[in-house]
Amino acid sequence: MRHLFGGTTSDYAMQQVGNQLLLRPGATGQVWTAVNGGTQLTDLTDTGGVPITSVVAAADGSVAFYGPEDVTEAFIDFGFGRRYTLIASDIASTVSSRLDSLVATAADDAATKAAAAQAAAISTAADNAAALYLPSAITTVDSLIAAATPVAPAYFAHRGGGMVRPEHTLAAYRAAAAMRYPLEVSVNVDASGELWCLHDSTVDRTTNRTGLLSSYTTEEVSQQIETNSRPLLGAGWEEQRLVPLRQVLDEFLGKVPILLEPKANDAVVPCQQLLDASYPHAPRSVIWKAHIGTLSLPWAKARGYRTWVYLDSGTSDATMDEKDSMVDYWGVNTTFTDTRIGQVVARGKPVFAWSVYRRSQVARLTGLGVVGMMSSDPRYVSTSAPQRTASRWDLQIKEPGCTPTIDYDPDYTLEFAPAPDVGWVSIPALPFQSVGLGTYCPIAVGAGGYRISFDMKYKVLPGTTTLHAGIYFGKQSDDPYRFGTANATGGYHLVMRANGQMQVYRHTAASTSGTPIGSVVATSAPVADTAMSFQVDVTPTTVEVRRTDGAGWTTGAVADTTYRGGYFGLSNGSIDDAGNRPYWRNLVVTQL
Predict the structure, then answer these.
(1) Residue 239 main-chain phi, psi, to 5 deg
(2) Is the pTM of this model over 0.70?
(3) Which end of the chain has the lower number of beta carbons within 10 A, N or C?
């Protein structure tokens, strides 16, 4: 911009004559860039904006003109022997304006930088706090799933491992976390708004009380409600108190990943509010778990949570398409057909299956491309070796790998007898039910094979003398075995009839009937509530069964090599009355 020169009470054309300064109206002056020498400035205008090349003093001797663009200092020579210095007379207002602008810009810049610095400081503080709360060795959700493949799947503790520990309790979560299994946590809300780890909206199935959890206050839940896990897991268990979600998050968040699901609709918002307010770093190690019908996925994705969405058997592809953009992992049930599971896997996202409690289920699912196992017995299904060779049923604690035909159902599990029969076990469900003994499987075979020893008795003898019970053995897999049923894999079945007849059958996969091998052995008829002892020897070439509480009761070494699998279990055989069911004790597996 052009700046104004002159126009003040000090700006006049004057000549010094003696000791006086005399005005020189109409004097013509040239404008220069320096007090001596320099360059003449001719790009000037008068105060009206008319271009001029020199300056003419007004009738009163005053001087006023505009200099070249952005020039604020000049020197004028009226030909009186010296040049006078001129400073742009509008410089003060210009400087003030520019200063105001600079100050405003600087203020805006400072505010922006301060806000950025504050945000960075808050972020750094949050990261540092999270680093303290979440150890640097944390297994994040992403690192866990990124490493999961069908060859090496990820295993999650379904309900904390609810087939071997009281489900959704601190005891269950601690045991699973100690073995580094991620936790599956279900929550519901009480009448006071507190979230508790509980699968059902009612307390009927898993506790000593009845009714909706939402009908109890926090104080009532904490002081009066505890689990009733003994029918499923054994009388050796102490019943547990329910645990609040806050306590679980405080203890395990960041140590193992957590799949978190509010089960009932009234628990969703309290759960979201708790995470938002108290656990802003939770998305690092929490997967938001929900049914395909949920409306909570936008909330979860907006906060950076990974989502696991599980399906119904009738869920359509169109329904899945609607939610696909908000889903990180799909969930399938083990009851789904191979075809349906394959279709879900083919969508390209990691698939987790629930609820897995058999190694044979893992083999099937990984073969279909599933990479995550939501297991009620993760220690057992994630390993391939036996954990013991002799029973400890006197402790009345359900063992890992105890595989009834139906999971989570006390009627089908192994039942521990009370005094005076402590150490004996039975299967209450009838007819034709069995329980696999996976904790001893696959049997570690010696050079000469292996031996299974056990005692069996009928507390009350069956009314029909041909009814029988015993054990099955030699199966290649821990898939279910049921007498009189077309089973998935073959094996052998030892039967002990109520009339004293002992016999071994070979069962072919997919066949409902067995083929006897060797002859029927006539032993003394069982006596009610009296133990009988047995040995089953499996060598590389033969199978032999002995009843050892008498002399000479043996099938002899029967030449049969059809089945040499390492899985076995207890079988009610053809017994059809729970009052006549068999009992077993003193199981021992020995290498030959």
Answers:
(1) -70, 150
(2) yes
(3) N
